[in-house]
Amino acid sequence: MTESGDAPLPDGVTRRSFDGEDRLATRGDPVYGEPTDGEWRLWDARRSKLGAMLELGMDTGLDGGETVLYLGAASGTTVSHVADVAGPTYAVEFAPRPARDLVDVAETRPNLFPLLKDARKPETYAHVVEASVDAVIQDVATRGQARVARLNRRFLADSGRLVAAIKARSEDVARDPGDVFEDVLESLRQDYEVLATESLAPFHEDHLAVVATPR
What we know:
By secondary structure, the chain is of the alpha/beta class. The protein has a single domain (14-214), classed as Vaccinia Virus protein VP39 (Rossmann fold, 3-Layer(aba) Sandwich), CATH 3.40.50.150. It has helices at residues 49-55, 77-85, 96-106, 145-151, 168-171, 177-188; strands at residues 14-18, 21-27, 36-37, 40-42, 68-71, 89-93, 112-116, 133-138, 156-167, 192-199, 207-214. Helix 4 (145-151) runs parallel beside helix 6 (177-188). The two termini are 20 Å apart.
């Protein structure tokens, strides 16, 4: 795995003191009962794969202000933080129940656009998503995670970034996670140049963070 060092945080992401400990924070309305400090809300790395990447000092290539396509938005925990610091943010979620919560999150974030769609079928939302987004952020709990990233490559600018959290147990619960990750990376490399990878432990077990750029 590629060591990522201690990269600077994206604009709009800072550190604030919560219970005497410096933690990641963004400015926005709370979403999942997270602690707040005035206008700032804790970005809990144990509930967010992207938050864990930033907490670990990984260079995601995100600067803040990007146009983002977020795959696997669920009820809005992480994508709400993304929308706090990004530009237009398209949030794709397949399951109706969390998508309803996502719609509520978007009510106070006019740049957040919930899409009740399947990330495995990008043609169903191609008419909505901008043709050239700056970042695709992926956190989907499904088999074929590399395929999802490759299918959504169509939306990503040539200079853009794929920032993905690969879940070994979603691919194959019986296989060694390291072997699963090798297969996923091999598939990704057909359409992406992998810039960095890092385990998300101790925040998320059997997860691999991947940052890549389109080939």
